[in-house]
Hints:
Layout lengths: L1 H15 L2 H21 L3 H43 L15 H13 L1
Helix pairs in contact: 1-3
Amino acid sequence: MNKWFARSARKVSNAAGSPWAFLVAFSSIIIWLVVGFFVGFSDTHQLIINTGTTIITFLMVFLIQNSQNHDTAALHLKLDEIIRSLDNARNEIAAAEDMEPDELKRRLEEERKT
């Protein structure tokens, strides 16, 4: 299931970030607006757009988070590989993402002083 979700999330995230997705979303709002003039922007009309956008936003949060987690993990892996290949690099810094916030802050301050 993880493989299927990751593949699907990547495809949907890529599609959602496309100009076509923006065009569909923009067109939907325009259509909703035009229809609103004919039905008088009733409560039901308002509820349709509010419910639709809420559901889409809720689902997109999980898809975007999944894509972000994947991209971040890949970036860390690549950077760790580069750090470990350098002779004079401090390899303990390669695992900075696992440090506690206070330790990370302390290390950042040390780096800025040098």
